[in-house]
């Protein structure tokens, strides 16, 4: 087994305070092992092409949804993986949501996550995302939440991939083969 050089080759400076937290939208596609695709093109963790795949856009309200990537490394076993956790909150209940929730719970989709800084991350690229929690709720008071939450978790060898050249009009504009449907 060949030895891989795990040495870092650069540092990082403190940047300006100009970014925002939160998730703006998610683009959910039916599962494919994206990195194994014939048209998968990536350099320095930036994806420029995938095999033809449709992603469905789900818009999210500000300050209700999040993406967290947890690092997991074990020196004793020599393993490292990255746990990607996406928590989405969708307001309002609709009868069509029940079928979508069931399908998401039973599947393992690939998901592109657009944050409020126009960064677009691919999670569940190789193994897909699994629904690990969530609920449908309607509160007690008039001001309480009426909608549903879904928590997706993926475990991958790569923390995230970035989409190439996202635009405000099309988050996946720079990823050949990716189609966005609303």
Question: Could you explain the architecture of this structure?
Answer:
A hairpin with a 4-residue loop joins strand 6 (110-115) and strand 7 (120-123). The strands form two sheets. A five-stranded mixed beta barrel has the order 1-3-10-7-6. The protein has a four-stranded antiparallel sheet with strand order 4-5-9-8, with helices on one face. It has one helix at residues 95-106, and strands at 23-29, 41-43, 46-59, 66-74, 79-91, 110-115, 120-123, 130-138, 146-156, 161-163, 176-181. It is globular. The protein is mainly beta. The termini are far apart. The protein is built from one helix and eleven strands. The mean pLDDT is 93.
Query: Average pLDDT value?
Result: 93
The radius of gyration computed from the alpha-carbon positions, rounded to a whole number of angstroms, is 18 Å
Categorize the overall geometry.
Answer: globular
Low-pLDDT windows of residues: none
Q: Major sheet: size, sense and barrel closure?
A: 5 strands, mixed, barrel
Number of strands: 11
Q: What's the end-to-end separation, in Å?
A: 46 Å
> Strand-residue fraction?
over 45%
Biggest β-sheet: strands ordered side by side in the sheet: 1-3-10-7-6
SSE blueprint and pairings:
Elements lengths: L22 E7 L11 E3 L2 E14 L6 E9 L4 E13 L3 H12 L3 E6 L4 E4 L6 E9 L7 E11 L4 E3 L12 E6 L1
Parallel strand pairs: 3-10, 3-11
Antiparallel strand pairs: 1-3, 1-6, 2-3, 4-5, 5-9, 6-7, 7-10, 8-9
């Amino acid at each position: 087994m060949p030895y891989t050089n795990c040495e870092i080759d650069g540092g990082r400076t403190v940047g300006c305070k100009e970014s925002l937290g939160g998730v703006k939208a998610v683009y959910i596609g039916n599962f494919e092992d994206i990195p194994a695709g014939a048209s998968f093109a990536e350099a320095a963790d930036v994806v420029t092409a995938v095999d033809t795949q449709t992603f469905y856009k789900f818009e999210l309200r500000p300050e209700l949804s999040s993406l967290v990537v947890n690092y997991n490394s074990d020196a004793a076993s020599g393993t490292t993986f990255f746990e990607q956790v996406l928590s989405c909150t969708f307001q309002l209940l609709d009868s069509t949501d029940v079928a979508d929730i069931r399908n998401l719970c039973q599947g393992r989709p690939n998901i592109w996550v657009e944050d409020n800084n126009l960064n677009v991350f691919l999670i569940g690229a190789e193994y897909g995302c699994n629904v690990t929690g969530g609920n449908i709720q309607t509160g007690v008071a008039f001001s309480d939440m009426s909608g549903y939450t879904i928590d997706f978790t993926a475990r991958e060898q790569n923390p995230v991939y970035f989409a190439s050249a996202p635009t405000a009009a099309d988050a996946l504009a720079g990823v050949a083969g990716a189609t966005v449907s609303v």
